[in-house]
Specification:
With 421 residues, the chain is of the alpha/beta class. The chain has helices spanning 20-30, 52-60, 75-87, 103-113, 130-138, 158-163, 187-199, 262-274, 280-283, 286-291, 296-300, 305-319, 348-359, 385-404, and strands at 36-37, 98-101, 121-126, 142-147, 169-175, 203-207, 231-237, 250-256, 323-324, 333-338, 361-362, 364-365, 376-380. The strands form 3 sheets. A 7-stranded mixed β-sheet has the order 2-8-7-6-5-3-4, with helices on both faces. Strands 9-10-13-12 form a 4-stranded antiparallel β-sheet. It has a two-stranded parallel sheet with strand order 1-11.
Length: 421
């Protein structure tokens, strides 16, 4: 039999968040090991519930959810997105400029597929959420990574970005609040990015899925309030702020310079039609979510679950002999690095595998996020502070073994179950 080979387009696509490490973790769980999964920001796994009002909205409208809806989504959901944008100061947007998708992930693919021709370039942050890089690649484009350097608190320098623009550049991706770093960009930085996008006629894709997950005095500035002279696409959804990952509901809303975007939006409408429509039951939760009580604020203020878990991460890093961190100001992650000069041979992929095999903790290596360095890794702050404190103890044990040159000490194997007949 001839070997069935995958598409060559996948050769440069990476998604280690659910890759080899996650598969190995699944194998270990089947053997009885208890794995602490810090690789994915999946609130439901850690006991976070979707607000009850959203669940009730879905149940009450199930009778209206059995048929396909319009390819852009149901009107109440799209209108709710418009009202949210208007409340934030975005003008000139109607429900016609809103597309509902099966999560932001599907929409990232669709907005790029509607735009890109072979070898078109898209400016993507490094580190990035790797789906952006993958989707550019799969849609025949070329991702060009602009640096968000650790020494700058992972905030990009617009001058670095502008130097990367060529005649093939079509768009720039801005992820704010940022995944994986937790950085929240300043208004000044965002304004400069908006102006350079306008000068070079670039579409601005704003991934703002963590828009209300902020800590301390962090201020979220919606990019759509700053971009006027070019097309701006704001992507968000129910997954994170509303703890509804499984509902698979996201949206993209277009604003800014819409007059010359008709053909592009028509192409996106065609692609939306080809997949018929997005999940209908989940869409009925959008109006309730955006117009109702914003319970996320209870979780992110001092004393709240996300705030306290973030503090456990800050404490764990501060007590470590090896780790360093720019405190995340938003989102649900920490992008932790190794202090310079303490572990010269550190490799993020080896560390992630050793931590899984010997300490039963699953995380995402920093190079998974398209970094040119291998000294960082990402964890989520969704577990309880107690679990995170235990994770840092396990990390420190492994890093101590690296420093001493000894073999890592593994946690005990699970006891075998004896089934008596």
């Amino acid at each position: 039999m001839r070997t069935i080979r995958p598409s060559a387009s996948l050769a440069n696509v990476r998604y280690e968040i659910r890759g080899d490490l996650a598969r190995r973790a699944h194998e270990m769980e089947r053997l009885g090991y208890e794995i602490i999964p810090l690789n994915i920001g999946n609130p439901g796994v850690f006991g976070f519930r979707t607000p009850e009002t959203m669940r009730l909205a879905m149940i009450e409208n199930l009778k209206s959810s059995e048929a396909y809806c319009h390819q852009k989504g149901i009107f109440p959901a799209r209108e709710a997105v418009v009202m949210q944008q208007q409340s934030r100061g975005v003008r000139g947007v109607s429900a016609e400029e809103v597309f509902i998708g099966n999560g932001v992930s599907e929409l990232i693919d669709l907005v790029l597929r509607a735009l890109l021709s072979t070898d078109d370039e898209v400016l993507v942050p490094s580190p990035d959420y790797p789906l952006w890089t993958a989707a550019v690649t799969l849609n025949r484009g070329r991702p060009v990574h602009y640096p968000c350097r650790p020494e700058n608190g992972f905030e990009p320098d617009p001058d670095d970005i502008e130097r990367l623009i060529t005649s093939r550049t079509r768009a720039i991706v801005v992820i704010n609040p940022n995944n994986p770093t937790g950085a929240v960009y300043s208004r000044a930085t965002l304004e400069r990015i908006a102006r350079l996008a306008e000068r070079h006629h670039l579409i601005v894709f704003c991934d703002e899925i963590y828009d209300q997950i902020l800590y301390d005095d962090a201020e979220f500035v919606p990019m759509a309030t700053l971009v006027q002279g070019t097309l701006c696409a704001t992507l968000s959804g129910l997954s994170k702020v509303y703890r509804a990952c499984g509902y698979r509901v996201g949206w993209v809303v277009f604003s800014g310079e819409l007059e010359h975007a008709g053909e592009y939006l028509g192409a996106l409408d065609k692609l939306s039609s080809l997949r018929l429509c997005s999940n209908v039951p989940g869409q009925w939760a959008v109006q309730t979510a955006l117009g109702g009580y914003q319970s996320i604020r209870e979780l992110t203020r001092p004393g709240g679950r996300l705030y306290q878990s973030r503090q456990a991460i800050l404490d764990g890093v501060a007590q470590s002999k090896y780790l360093q961190l720019h405190a995340p100001r938003g989102a649900i992650y920490a992008f932790i690095g190794i202090r310079e000069g303490v572990l010269a041979e550190f490799d993020d992929q080896r560390f992630a595998m050793d931590l899984l095999e010997h300490k039963h903790v699953l995380l995402a290596p920093g190079t998974s996020f398209n970094t040119p360095y291998n000294t960082h890794f990402r964890i989520t702050n969704l577990p309880t502070p107690e679990v995170l404190a235990d994770v840092f103890r396990r990390m420190e044990e492994l890093l101590d073994s690296y420093a001493s040159g000894s073999e890592p000490v593994s946690r005990p194997a699970p006891a075998l179950k004896v089934i008596k007949g």
